[in-house]
Write a structure and sequence with these properties.
Elements lengths: L1 E4 L15 H16 L4 H6 L6 E8 L8 E11 L3 E10 L2 E11 L10 H4 L1 H13 L3
Antiparallel strand pairs: 1-3, 2-5, 3-4, 4-5
Length: about 140
């Protein structure tokens, strides 16, 4: 779980967090998640692999406002060795405020797809272990 407070500059004239900020919060939580599982993005990039976002979907359930503490729960929803889907649940005081997903591919420095099971087996083992523990 990753937590953060909604900052004043992230709100609109109605005092509600602007919808575009949720994508930033997803990235913050995803980077924290990668650190927690022991495979930080810096390590992946040092090994020559980047993970660009292929798609994002967000369903806003309830607004949040300046000063609210947001808890973001991150989990791997799917992984096939080429594409990884990450799920996010954002809560505020035990209320669901947002459900989201991001899809990521893995490419080398030349922009070519990487076969993760061959090129980064340790990462794959970690992700597949998470999927099994979550019942996938």
């Amino acid at each position: 779980m990753y937590t953060r407070r909604v900052q004043y500059y992230e709100t609109d004239m109605m005092g509600i967090a602007h919808h575009a900020n949720y994508v930033h919060w997803m990235e913050e939580a995803r980077i924290d998640f990668m650190d927690q599982i022991g495979y930080p993005y810096r390590r992946m990039e040092a090994e020559g692999v980047m993970s660009p976002v292929r798609a994002v979907s967000i369903q806003y359930k309830k607004p949040c406002t300046f000063g609210d503490e947001i808890a973001i729960f991150v989990s791997v929803e799917a992984f096939n060795g080429v594409v990884m889907t990450i799920r996010y649940e954002m809560t505020n005081e035990d209320s669901l405020i947002c459900e989201a997903r991001s899809e990521h591919v893995f490419v080398n420095r030349e922009g070519r797809l990487v076969r993760m099971k061959r090129d980064m087996p340790e990462f794959c083992d970690i992700i597949e272990g998470l999927l099994k523990s979550d019942g996938h």
